[in-house]
Amino acid sequence: MRRHSAQLTHDPAVLPWLGANFWSRTGGPLMWRGYDPATVREELAVLRAHGLTMTRSFFYWPDFHPEPHRVDETLCGHFHDFLDAHAEAGMATVPTFLVGHMSGENWDPAWRGGRDLYEDVWLVGRQAWFVSQMTRRFKDHPAVTGWLISNEMPGYGRVYQVDPPSSEVVTAWAQAMCNAVRAAGGTQPVSLGDGAWGIEVTGRDNGYSLRETAEYVDFVGPHVYRSDTDRPRQHYRAAFECELAAVTGAPVVLEEFGLSTDMVSDENAAVYYRQTLHNSLLGGATGWMAWNNTDYDDLWEQSPYDHHPFEMHFGITDATGAPKPPLRELGAFAEVLKAVDFPRCRRGDADAALVVPAFLERGYPYSRPADRPLIFTSLHQGYVAAHAADLPVGLTREADGLPDEAALYLLPATRQLTTRTRRELRRRAHRGATVYLSFCSGEHPVTRGPWFDDLDGLFGVAHQLSYGVAESIEDEVLEMTFTQDFGSLAAGDVLRFPVAGNADSRAYLPVVPQGARVVAVDAHDRPALLVNETGSGRTVLATYPLEHMAARTARANPEDTHRLYAALARVAGARRPVTVDSPYVGADVLVHEDGRRFVWLVSQHGEEITVRPAADGTLHDLTSGTAADEVTLAPYGVRVMELR
């Protein structure tokens, strides 16, 4: 499978985009009222000195568009100087047009009058007019490298009301806004700035469909701030959302990510930036914009900082302009991008597919939105386990008909499949693939159990479920003992898994083999893992919701699912180009267009760790070229090496 690696192509001088969302420390969102050219240049110089190539900038809508048919020319003059400052620094910027939401507060132009942002024709016309006016003014400036229509419009529109806008309405609005950019002569890449929080990524329908708006945008920009109860899951969260956001094949730019240093220590702020940057790169992101460039200690009496005080300290520099640990991590990341010539690299191919059920993004009749968080979290946990197993995976969408051929199909804690997919998986297995599914009964009592036909025939079992009754797991820890060799696992090996879930999902699948062979049993000698040979391939059934249980467990990772995935890869013949003798260190590969290969080693260990990677070649230091059999990683550290 070719994994998503699409790159932007506009303005190579500032590619890849590596930058920060920018408000000057002199005013935050109100910076244009008292614009300070000298301070802006000081701020940009610090960013540029650390390898940043660009910013994302904002037309604060109430100020730039004070009357329905008028743009504030004084502020436009300030913005022109802002662009000049970027050009002087060898940087570029992505202006954002409709900025009525920012950092925990919404602001309207005084003339909006409560009109609907999407469906009031007059107001949509005024928005399009403003977009076109600003595009005409600045489209020819060499410092403009892209455009964004809004800032998190779902938080400014109707998503928090009872009636969020329909995807038809939002898509029509997006078409009008993007067409306004093009009609005004803007040729740079454009996107919506919505955060990619729609149904294809989160399972929540907020009207912003990546599929339906794909015709009008040139890249997708996730905004990732979610938290977790498990550190590796947190470290892979942005990467996983970037993988999901690649549904249309457009380049993925991690448009917003970051943290307030009121909420974490300096050391852990650096860790989060390091992990997010490198893991999202390995997850297909090809651009990065931190939130945000500076702290705002002097603006404590100004909204939103008076009521969201932690918003003052999301900066990668402090309120004096001095670098904070996140900026130093961005600088180190910039050096890596330069060393590997990142714009000419792509991710290595994968033989394993992580299957995204169509029920995440399709509102099938009488299916329940409550199913979607289970799908998301189980896939996310499976993604983390695959990294611990050094198993490259590509996400493949059931909604697209499983378009990619793979040696191994992973369906973690999957309870819902369409009839077409169930039959296609059987055909793939018969032709030589390995299809793995872990049973999950779901998290609510209605239509509990597998929502696809003939589980028995697919896996060579006869299930023993009783109608409406969950077969509760009584143990606190699942012990899976192998009764025969399976891939890299030997007879007698024991895998242990945390048991978790609610009254509906903390359940196993009782089965009797009907053609399948039992390769592992639980502590009660019940089948826990079965293999059903079919044609030249096989199906593999885990009778416990392994990934779901881990996803519902705090501080679970690394847990033993990675050992099962490594065994599945061995059985399926799925390549693992580089493997590491510790589940705390994940390995993955980027390939340069000239044939060079670069290995990323990413540690999830809180202490220094030394590992001996195994690969089809030798690892060499990027700077010195020295060969290395052993690699030492700092706590939560990253090493990038060349594989020769």
Task: Describe, in plain words, how this protein is organized in 3D.
The protein is α/β, with parallel strands linked by helices and 644 residues long. The protein has three domains: 12-347, Glycosidases (TIM Barrel, Alpha-Beta Barrel); 352-572, Class I glutamine amidotransferase (GATase) domain (Rossmann fold); 578-643, Golgi alpha-mannosidase II (Immunoglobulin-like), CATH 2.60.40. Helix content is 27%, strand content 21%. It contains 16 helices and 31 strands. Strands 13-12-14-15-22-21-20-17-18 form a nine-stranded mixed sheet, with helices on both faces. An eight-stranded parallel sheet has the order 7-6-3-2-1-10-9-8. The chain has a six-stranded antiparallel sheet with strand order 11-24-25-31-28-29, with helices on one face. Helix 4 (121-138) packs parallel to helix 5 and helix 9 (237-245) runs parallel beside helix 10. The longest helix has 18 residues, at 121-138. The chain is globular, with a radius of gyration of 25 Å. The mean pLDDT is 95.
